[in-house]
Amino acid sequence: MSERYSRQGFLGEAGQRAIETARVCINGLGGGGSIVAPELAHLGVQNFVLYDPDHGDESNLNRTMTLTEADVTAGTLKIEAARRRILEINPRAKIEVHSCRWQDRPKALDGSTLVMGCVDSFSERQQIEACCRRLLVPYIDIGMDVHAGDPPAMSGQIILSAPGGPCMFCMHFLTEAKIGREVANYGAAGGKPQVVWANGVLASTAVGIAVNILTGWAKGSPPIYLQYKGNGGTLEPHIRLGYLAPGPCPHYPLDQAGEPAFVKV
Amino acid sequence: MPITIRLPRDLYQGVLADLRRPHAHAAERIGFIYGRFVPGDQPLVVMTRYVPVPDEQYVVDDTVGARINGDAIRAAMQGVLDTREGVFHTHLHEWPGTPWFSRTDDEELPRLIPAFRAVGPTQATGLFLLSPDSAIADVWLPGAQGPERVVRISIV
Amino acid sequence: MSFSPEEARELADTFPGTERAEEAGVTYFRIPDVTLPDGCSPSPTTLLLCPSHRGGYEYRLFFSERVNTPVAKNWNGSIHILGRTWHAFSWQAKEKVTLTQMVARLLRALSCP
Asked: Are B48 and A257 in contact (CB < 8 Å)?
């Protein structure tokens, strides 16, 4: 094991190789993605696919770790800021950037070993999860919210949607009602509350799950749905896990994986 | 083009468990894994199910690890037609590490491929060889002249 | 909205080449080579009908490409379904209608303000 990764030697030589040969797609390089990307680079991930259509703006500076004030002035794309940071960590990293929604260039996602979802839309999550299920790619999703109240209630989630396992519909994180409300409120929603420390917890935990998937170092199944309670600073398995329907995921059966099978009516 | 195979963990463990079952006369077991081809710059085959060869479809032949009869081949072909998935002949070599196809495998297994390709020309077809901790696969992509060794097999 | 096998057959009779596929528990109908109303392009084009309540719409018609229409439409649905990205404009319709009527109404809506 090289000196660079000597302090993560417990992952094993095979584990380190798995990290270095993985191709990780990150959808969204804002608050969460800007932490995920450099952490993966530090761990030794060499191959990245980054999607984000946005430029950095003033309101991102409170939490987007790869953006600077100069970037906001210059109108730097979030993917470019992330690419810059990854290359500072590892100049040999191969980074494919797409300044668009992943739906506009979906084929780039095909060769991914893992997809990390760092977006704040239920509809976006549903679409990328469906694509990942079709490609049998594990999808790790993070997100946070702060609900009005006295005091405000901060919460978040890390969800692993793995082929054959429960999906975000199974876990009731995604529901048609939530997606419908989001569509109905589109344009009126405004920026959702986001802070760097909560994003840090969620992003780092997601990276830990990613490493577990790639290397198997923890020798057990990674957690699939963790709930973050920001007010108390705790992370625990979500209570909904106790109510999962038995059996394989009915929303994404394995026989629907791969290219969709259209049948004549 | 680097080809990737993705195999769900439960399916993988089911395949291993089946291939390890003893047989009355065959030294090895054979099964068929079915998968769907996803074309692109990074072609992908996603494996969806496994069908073991029934005990009675093995031929008594002690010159080889296992030999299956015409019924087994016909059933695999029918599986391709019924589901429009591609099929992979699958067996296990029980020594750890990266497995390799034996001389018998190299001589005989490719002969199965044209029949499978004939009934599933738009799918990927191939040969899948497992060891207790590793695997290799040769894939015939749609329209390809010959096989390619798969670059990456991921248990997901 | 649920639909009957008869409705599916009527859809296929009206639009030859209609196929169906499922994703996330929802059935979709892909309809090739559909001629769009006058003034709309490109035509013909391929449609994807989602006849179920999804994403805040009782039913929705997706197009393989964004359509140029004589009246401005809010193309708010660039959505990845069944392995590719489809495009839809915002049009709420809540009446219970057959599959064929869904397609007809939404095609007509291309030309409506």
From this structure: yes
Structural tokens at position B132: 């207790």
pLDDT per residue over C57-108, tens digit each? 999 999 999 999 999 999 988 999 999 999 999 998 878 899 999 999 999 9
- Give pTM, 2 decimals: 0.91
Report the distance separating Cα A237 and Cα A241, nearest Å.
7
DSSP per-residue letters across C19-82: EEEEETTEEEEEEEEEPPPTT-BS-SEEEEEE-S-BTTBSSEEEESSPPB-SS-----EEEEET
Q: How many residue pairs from chains A and B have C-beta atoms closer than 8 A?
A: 65
Answer whether B152 sits within 8 Å of A261, measured CB to CB: no
Tens of pLDDT, residue by residue over C7-59, are 999 999 999 999 999 999 999 999 999 999 999 999 999 999 999 988 889 99
Q: Best interface-test mutation with A: which of C22, C31, C81 has the largest number of A CBs within 10 A?
A: C22
Total tally of structural domains belonging to chain A: 1
In a domain, A130, yes or no: yes
CATH 3.30.70 correct for B4-155: no
SS3 category, A27: strand
**Domain region containing A175:** 3-256
Q: Which of A49, A136, A224 to mutate to test the interface with B (most CBs of B within 10 A)?
A: A136
Selecting from C17, C24, C29 the residue whose C-beta is nearest the C-beta of A169 gives C24
Rounded to two decimals, the ipTM of the complex is 0.91
Integer angstrom CA distances of residue B140 from B87, B112, C68: 10, 12, 42
Decide if B150 contacts B4 (C-beta within 8 A): yes
Q: Are C55 and A180 an interchain contact pair (Cβ–Cβ within 8 Å)?
A: yes
> Does residue A261 lie within any of the structural domains?
no
Burial zone of B120 (CB within 10 Å; 0-12 exposed, 13-18 middle, 19+ buried): buried
Closest CA to B151 of B61, B42, B56: B42
**Structure tokens that stand for B6 in this block:** 């993705």
What CATH number does residue A106 fall under? 3.40.50.720
Where would I find the beta strands (DSSP E) of B95-134? 125-130
